Amino acid sequence: MQTLRILLAVLALVFLAAPMAAAPAPAGAMVDNLKTAYEGESNAHARYVAFAMQADREGYGEVASLFRAAARAEQIHAENHAAVLRRLGVVPVVRVEGPVVGTTRDNLIAAIEGETAERDRMYPEFITNARSAGDANAVRTLTWAWEAEKDHAFLCAMALMNLDQLKGSRAVEYYVCPGCGHTMTKEQLAACPTCRTRKEKAERIV
Ligand SMILES: [Fe+2]
To answer: How many CB atoms lie within 10 A of CB 104?
Structure first.
């Protein structure tokens, strides 16, 4: 039942409206937001690497592949956020916490909670703020991450729904856009719909 509730929440919110314009915001808040996003993405990368190892230990090869692909995507988001911070004259600093690792089922639930929070609250708020500040670079990096978190929330929800069938599965191919972190299954591989990077440049993750 918990799985069903999570899945319904994910599916109901996949097609969110674009963040609304808001009153002008001070650039200082935008920098703080970029720092928060940078730290969040850096920690998500570490968390997904650990989740992938746990999935392999439990014999969920396909889920391990998904976590490795998500880890690479989060790393790309962190690098993109850091590049914008440097252009603003800010040295990116991050403290990576030791990830809390449970069973693969627990880890998928935690991943969905994290991705949906970023998708539904954090990134829409940060993008609106960056637009108000008039910073195109910040808007772009935050929007690219926001788009990829939608992918991750959906893919993790699918994995959770099918987890029983994935026991004993082997690693599978995922593809990650090196520009924005857009995450695709082998069947979905195409030019990136977010940043238009050609499909030949997508990184193969297994
Ligand atoms: Fe992309």
So the answer is: 25
* Phi, psi dihedral angles at 188 (to 5 degrees): -90, -5
Amino acid at 103: T
Q: From residue 105, how far is each of 1, 50, 133, 136 by CA, in Å?
A: 14, 14, 40, 39
Q: How far is the CA of 196 from the centre of ligand 1 (A)?
A: 6
pLDDT in tens, 67-121: 999 999 999 999 999 999 999 999 999 999 889 999 999 999 999 999 999 999 9
Please report, for the domain that includes residue 162, its CATH number: 1.20.1260.10
Q: Is there a domain that residue 126 lies in?
A: yes
CA atoms within 13 Å, Cβ hemisphere of 5: 4
- What's the CA-to-centroid distance between 82 and ligand 1, angstroms? 17
- Beta carbons of 127 and 147 less than 8 angstroms apart: no
Please give the residue range of the domain that contains residue 120: 2-11+25-171
pLDDT, tens digit (0-9, with 9 covering 90-100), for 3-41: 555 554 545 444 444 455 545 555 789 999 999 999 999
Q: Could you give the C-alpha distances from 61 to 3, 19, 51, 103, 186, in angstroms and in order?
A: 20, 36, 11, 14, 15
pLDDT bin (cut points 50, 70, 90) of residue 176 is very high
Centroid of ligand 1 to alpha carbon of 1 (angstroms): 35
In total, how many domains does the chain have?
Answer: 1
